[in-house]
Specification:
six-stranded mixed beta sheet; globular
Length: 224
């Protein structure tokens, strides 16, 4: 297994509305296997934009992006969709659980989409992740029956279902109170320590960032 999970070379991004504006400037960075890294910086410094490029959801950039030492820049939308589902787990500020499905089904969905395992195996794995996050007893509940903190734990279980190479989070504790933020942090920490999971989290919470292995600070589209 390669040690470099993620690497960028001279990653540059422009916005063109209303005028051409350089929002990311020649970003060189790398993340190693098993690292827990946070990206911090003032609002508008480009951290969420960077995460969207790293997650392959935005392909309009200059420079190069490597995932697991493979060049990702230039791949087709179809290839990227497969790569995202297989290699990247996402946790956002909003949980994005589908209201028509129960907790268990929500966690299973990316696994069903990937289609590598049988439904029975995916269900088993989903229950194991829910158990790890102390949510197995809520498996048959609907999302609207859960608290904010519980929904975010379900979202983490869903991010883990395909055994991703890296989990990316965009303000995953942004909507949570202190107690639930600490809980989510502890879950992430446990994932790095016990499962050697790689995590890259954009956060504006200095307490959260302080406790990660490494902090990447951004200012005006650069890493400083």
């Amino acid at each position: 297994m390669s040690n470099k999970v993620l690497e960028t070379k001279k990653l540059t991004k422009y916005f063109h509305d209303p005028v051409k504006f350089e929002v990311l400037k020649q970003i060189d960075m790398s993340i190693n296997h098993g690292e827990f890294v946070s990206i911090v910086g003032k609002s508008g410094c480009g951290k969420s934009t960077l995460l969207y490029l790293l997650s392959t959801m935005d392909t309009d950039y200059e420079g190069q992006l490597f995932i697991n030492e493979e060049l990702i820049t230039g791949k087709t939308d179809k290839e990227l969709a497969k790569l995202r589902n297989e290699k990247i787990g996402f946790v956002f500020q909003f949980h994005y659980l589908l209201s028509e499905y129960n907790v268990l089904k929500n966690v299973m969905l990316p696994g069903m989409k990937l289609g590598k395992l049988s439904e029975k195996e995916i269900e088993h794995n989903a229950m194991e992740h829910l158990r790890t996050l102390d949510m197995h007893d809520q498996a048959l509940k609907m999302p609207n029956q859960l608290s904010g903190g519980q929904k975010q734990r379900v979202a983490i279980a869903r991010a883990l279902i395909n055994n991703p190479l890296i989990i990316m989070g965009d303000e995953p504790t942004g909507n949570l109170d202190k107690k639930n933020s600490d809980l989510v942090f502890d879950i992430f920490k446990k994932l790095t320590l016990e499962a050697k999971q790689t995590l890259l989290i954009v956060t504006h919470d200095p307490d959260f960032a302080e406790r990660t292995n490494r902090i990447i600070t951004m200012e005006d589209g650069r890493i400083i």
